UniProtKB/TrEMBL annotation:
Entry's family note: Belongs to the gamma-BBH/TMLD family.
Classification via Pfam families: GBBH-like_N, TauD
Pathway: Amine and polyamine biosynthesis; carnitine biosynthesis
GO MF term (any one): gamma-butyrobetaine dioxygenase activity
UniProt-listed Enzyme Commission number(s): 1.14.11.1
GO biological process: carnitine biosynthetic process
Gene coding for it: BBOX1
Domain TauD/TfdA-like: 186-428
Protein name: gamma-butyrobetaine dioxygenase
GO cellular component: mitochondrion
Function (record text): Catalyzes the formation of L-carnitine from gamma-butyrobetaine.
Amino acid sequence: MWMSTFARFALPALQRSTSAMACQALRACHRPGQAAGLLSSCLKSMQLRGHQTLGSASLPVARQSVRHVRALDEDRLMEVEWEDGGHSLYPFTWLRDNCQCPLCTLQSAQARKLLMSDLDIHTGVDVVEVTNDNKVSIVWPDQHTSVFDAEWLKKRCFSPAARQAMQEELFLNERYYWDSKLRIPTADYQEVLHDDKAALAWLLALRRVGIVYLRGAPAEQGHVARLAERIGYLRLTFYGHTWQVQDKYMANNVAYTSGRLSLHTDYPALHFAPGVQFLHCINQAVEGGESEVVDGFHMAEQLQREDPEAFRTLTSLPVDFTDTGTDYCDFMLQSKKCIIDVDAEGRVARINYNNATRDSVLDLPLHQVQPFYRSLKAFVDIMNRPENVVTYSMEPGDIVTFDNWRLLHGRRSYISRPDRLRHLEGAYLDWDEVMSRLRILRNSVHEDM
Ligand code: OGA
Ligand code: NM2
Ligand code: ZN
Ligand code: ZN
């Protein structure tokens, strides 16, 4: 079932564009657990944001042939003319720095051996030529020789379009923004564990959509750790390697009560908050306990449009967060974070907000206190709009996996009975490890095709 779905929708997509569409293999459901169409249909209701590089970004580079090379000595650039008529320029300094020979590169680690102290950043070249096997050869003034593969060079072309395509291939920063109409991409837990194509589709959708639902896990502890091992390793925090969300006596966190959790990101009290979160439902409450999620990037963009002043405030004022207690060991955390982080281009990059751990210490001059509250209220009002919130109810055996730098999540209050205590097991990972596994899976799935 999985294979046929995948073969029809994802494999051709993977051949064309690795990142964009493998996630179509995932089934998508309005409420996880209901049968529904493919992710492609849910994507129709979403808006594609970020770099618009879908077509070119992840195209495997076609066989590249070099027609001609020449040195532009004046500008200290090498110009490559490609068979398809295109041109690329490479600075001499960069070429010398990235010589791939065994003296300059430790091939077993694909790491640079050449030291900066041995790099002449004003070097010229003696000879540049195309070799018989279509590589580019450079002889440097000291007679050291570098040989560059055509495809290797093409991927590293300095044109804005090529750089953008390479960055998208490496980081997959293109996202689908969504609202309450999202049909959460859903996959089978066992398939994700045992099938590389299923695992790749899972991680691609986790990156692009920010949330993927997995069904079919046994309703017992240990499976968020098993899932983390599928990727690499989990992120240890003061709440342990994995943690048990239950109504606890003398709870050290509001999550460990039966109360409502308003929409939040986990752990803003850590300066480096966990990038990815897994929550596995082992037992659901008799009443209540439903889950809620919001696309924080989408809602922050709405705030920017509708209330630029509030957006400016929340992207510029650092807020104190605090968390004190004992769990894995005793802890006393303090952090300072803007509630909305933007990247160098001003795009929303991360949300840091948990009302429970926002500190009573508020390091602001008096006159900024009321404007801060007004801005936070505007943020929360947009976040809570019914058209932004996706609600679902987890059943035993379900695992939700989501981007904790992007999504806000919450739960309704619940009533447990002693014979049916609500119990979720959670774990954190970081995006570096998840992206690492995603790139490896993408390469191995490609090789199999
Ligand atoms: C948490 C949390 C969700 C839930 O523990 O931080 O968000 O459904 N839990 O209990
Ligand atoms: N838990 C669920 O920011 C937070 O305190 C989130 C973390 C206790 C591990 C809750
Ligand atoms: Zn060399
Ligand atoms: Zn949480």
